[in-house]
Amino acid sequence: MTKSLTIAVKRIYDAPEAKDGARFLVDRLWPRGVSKEKAALTAWLKILSPSDAMREEFHHATAQSDAAWAAFRNEYFAALDAGGDAVAAALAELDAAAKTGPVTLLYAAKDEARNNAVALREWLERRPK
């Protein structure tokens, strides 16, 4: 992805908009109450989501402190870095979409500031080009 690309992050429960461009769900579990039609996804890239263990550990951390958020991001980034062919294929799909327009990463979590999509966007923006 190019440095000038802005990757949007949005709750999947929010209505799709034309400005979303390519919409990628990046949660491991399908969000409750959302039909595939309503989701209007380009793809579901669950391979880019954190493991169940990582997700549960972060969600059960005391008050999801700054330390817990930093630990989650570090573990998640390490998993993405070591992701192998499946992660590479998902990244290629994101990169291809980014060449044609906006990209939006979708998540179901209630916390808009600390969730896997926010962390994934940070990792994507920092990764070597």
Considering the chains and any ligands shown, give keywords for the structure.
43% helix, YeaO-like, 129 residues, 5 helices, four-stranded parallel β-sheet, 4 strands, DUF488 domain-containing protein, alpha/beta
How much of the polypeptide forms β-strand, as a percent range? 5-15%
Overall shape:
globular
Uncertain runs:
none
Count of DSSP strands: 4
The helix/strand order is EEHEHHHEH
Mean of all residue-level pLDDT scores: 89
Span between N and C termini? 7 Å
- Strand line-up in the sheet with most strands: 1-4-2-3
Helix content: 40-55%
What profile does the largest beta sheet have?
A: 4 strands, parallel
Rg: 14 Å
Structural class: alpha/beta
Overall structural domain count: 1
Query: How many separate helices?
Result: 5
SSE layout and pairings?
Layout: E1 7-11, E2 22-25, H1 36-39, E3 43-44, H2 52-59, H3 66-81, H4 84-100, E4 103-107, H5 116-126
Parallel strand pairs: 1-4, 2-3, 2-4
Helix pairs in contact: 2-3, 3-5
Pfam families: DUF488-N3i
Protein name: DUF488 domain-containing protein
InterPro entries: YeaO-like
Task: Give an overview of the whole structure.
The protein has one domain (7-126). Helices cover 43% and strands 12% of the residues. It is built from five helices and four strands, in the order ββαβαααβα. The chain has helices at 36-39, 52-59, 66-81, 84-100, 116-126; strands spanning 7-11, 22-25, 43-44, 103-107. Strands 1-4-2-3 form a four-stranded parallel sheet. Helix 1 (36-39) links the parallel strand 2 (22-25) and strand 3. The protein is globular, with a radius of gyration of 14 Å. It starts with 6 loop residues before the first strand and ends with a helix. 20% of the residues are buried. The model has no long low-confidence stretch (mean pLDDT 89). This is DUF488 domain-containing protein. It comes from Sphingopyxis lindanitolerans. InterPro entries: YeaO-like (IPR052552).
